[in-house]
């Protein structure tokens, strides 16, 4: 009896009796392609107030050759002028984000007209700043994307302020900005709110494979894992700031450890690379070999690169670290050291598997002021690759049952599906999200889906449709079957 209304409606629609034996299948392209490894390296110079885009055109392993570096964004833009750009990150959507620690904003840059820069009207906007609400910003210090597309940022405050922050933001409604009022801003850690450990100057960020955040404290030189143990969505409670590494004068003592970067797995474990600070002249590798979630044993820390480098490419001031998909470690040396007077980016790779990049041929200049593109760098302080951390497939968000993609759920959706399955003289409508029409979520389209949609609307008790019932991806998106190419009624990841 539950389906009686549905069959009555279908009979009225067709003007004849209908049986579930009619089973036309419909499928679509749907699954967005995996994000490809991009050829662009983005570089930010704090003194030049500029972002550069670089491509290794001749595939020789560096970006020092003619025309391999261009200006991507600078003060010639019609958009916001940079004051002290210090951090840069490329999102899963391919969009570039630049953090300015003086202006206390995060700028969103998109080369809309594909002319190689983001200096044109409409190609830049403030994504997040001190007006976004929720907490005062003092000095945005670092940024990193997690696998869900959230931008994690640290704010280490100033000498006159007491607030220290690790935040999490994402444009959920697709308006291009992040606002606390729209539920798009979460403060994972706030020193003025926490009942747990105090992180004095949160700086470097890395996302562990499980999704939790590692943050380095360049005041104490400790590294903490922020874990939401009580399920309230933040890590402010006691016990949720877990010491991951403690700088120790009797063991490894870091000095002003401002940057950390997580590498791809080696023998099932992802190593963390840490700059030793301006005094130690080294980059360290930390690996949780015993799986206890902490770096406690002496064998879990080692020197990855230091002044013993065989080719004489030794550390100056390793301000920022980044790791590419192949495990190469890139070091931004801002030219602020007597050891390396030239601004440069070095590329480090453990070629012989001995755990360091100190052997001959394992370190090379990736970029410096000998470049033939005519760019004079003054303070290289960050780089990002056109590669998201999550290189898996991205699936379109939709609402099951909203077959006509109008943002609502009503009888019109069943009618729309029936015109797809049984087109008249005018043919089937132009639809691009078969998953939204798959009312019973069996990865095929047939008359049973129209019945499911109608039962969800009119049966007593109602028979709810499967997920997603609000904007989201298909829980079975990776399974073969139907797909969803586009769905304009939902903001997309």
Which descriptors would you attach to this protein?
four-stranded antiparallel sheet; 8% helix; 24 strands; 493 residues; 4 helices; Neuraminidase; 2 domains; mainly beta
Describe the protein's architecture and organization:
This protein has four helices and 24 strands. The protein has 493 residues and is mostly beta strands. It folds into two domains: 4-32 and 395-458, no CATH class; 40-385, TolB, C-terminal domain (Neuraminidase). The protein has a four-stranded antiparallel sheet, with no helix packed on it. A hairpin with a 6-residue loop joins β17 and β18. It is globular and about 75 Å long.
Query: What's the total number of strands?
Result: 24
Dominant shape: globular
Count every helix, treating DSSP H or I runs of 4 or more residues as helices: 4
* CATH topology grouping of the largest domain: Neuraminidase
Structural class: mainly beta
Helix and strand string, N-terminal first? HEEEEEEEEEEEEEEEEEEEEEEEEHHH
Q: Which residues form runs of ≥5 with pLDDT under 50?
A: 16-38
CATH class of the largest domain: Mainly Beta
- Name the average pLDDT: 83
Q: What Rg, in angstroms, do the CA atoms define?
A: 26 Å
Number of domains: 2
Superfamily (CATH H level) name of the largest domain: TolB, C-terminal domain
The major pleated sheet works out as: 4 strands, antiparallel
Percent range of helical residues: under 10%
First CA to last CA: what distance?
41 Å
CATH architecture of the largest domain: 6 Propeller
Q: What share of residues are in beta strands?
A: 25-35%
Strand order of the largest sheet: 3-2-1-24
């Amino acid at each position: 009896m539950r389906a009686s209304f549905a069959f009555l409606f279908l009979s009225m629609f067709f003007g004849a009796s209908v049986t579930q034996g009619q089973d036309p299948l419909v499928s679509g392209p749907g699954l967005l392609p995996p994000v490809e490894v991009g050829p662009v390296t983005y570089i930010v110079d704090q003194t030049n107030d500029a972002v550069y885009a670089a491509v290794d055109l001749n595939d020789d392993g560096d970006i020092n050759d003619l025309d391999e570096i261009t200006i991507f964004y600078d003060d010639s833009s019609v958009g916001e002028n940079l004051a002290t750009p210090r951090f840069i990150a490329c999102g899963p959507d391919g969009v570039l984000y630049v953090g300015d620690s003086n202006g206390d904003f995060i700028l969103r840059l998109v080369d809309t007209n594909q002319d190689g820069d983001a200096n044109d009207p409409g190609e830049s906007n403030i994504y997040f700043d001190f007006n976004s609400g929720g907490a005062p910003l003092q000095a945005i210090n670092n940024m990193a994307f997690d696998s869900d597309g959230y931008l994690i940022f640290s704010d280490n405050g100033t000498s006159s302020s007491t607030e220290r922050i690790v935040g999490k933001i994402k444009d959920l409604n697709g308006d291009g900005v992040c606002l606390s009022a729209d539920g798009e801003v979460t403060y994972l850690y706030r020193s003025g709110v926490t009942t747990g450990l105090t992180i004095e100057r949160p700086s470097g960020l890395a996302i562990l494979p499980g999704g939790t955040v590692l943050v380095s404290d360049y005041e104490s030189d400790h590294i903490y894992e922020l874990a939401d143990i009580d399920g309230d969505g933040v890590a402010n409670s006691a016990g949720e700031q877990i010491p991951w590494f403690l700088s120790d004068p009797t063991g490894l003592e870091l000095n002003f450890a401002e940057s950390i970067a997580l590498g791809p797995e080696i023998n099932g474990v992802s190593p963390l690379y840490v700059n030793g600070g301006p005094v130690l002249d080294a980059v360290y590798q930390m690996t949780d070999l015993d799986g206890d979630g902490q770096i406690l044993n002496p064998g879990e820390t080692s020197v990855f690169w230091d002044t013993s480098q065989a080719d004489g490419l030794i550390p100056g001031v390793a301000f920022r670290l980044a790791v590419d998909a192949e495990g190469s470690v890139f070091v931004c040396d801002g030219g602020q050291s007597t050891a390396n007077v030239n601004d440069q980016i070095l590329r480090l790779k453990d070629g012989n598997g001995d755990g360091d990049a100190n052997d001959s041929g394992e370190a090379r200049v990736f970029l410096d002021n000998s470049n033939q593109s005519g760019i004079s760098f003054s303070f290289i302080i960050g780089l990002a690759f056109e590669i998201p951390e999550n290189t898996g497939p991205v699936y379109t968000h939709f609402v099951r049952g909203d077959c006509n993609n109008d943002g609502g759920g009503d009888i019109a959706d069943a009618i729309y599906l029936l015109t797809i399955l049984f087109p008249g003289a005018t043919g089937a409508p132009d639809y691009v999200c078969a998953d939204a029409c798959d009312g019973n979520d069996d990865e095929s389209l047939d008359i049973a889906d129209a019945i499911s949609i109608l039962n969800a609307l009119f049966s007593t008790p109602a028979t709810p449709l499967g997920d997603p019932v609000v904007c989201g991806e298909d829980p079975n998106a990776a399974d073969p079957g139907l797909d969803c190419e586009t769905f304009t009624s939902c903001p997309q990841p």
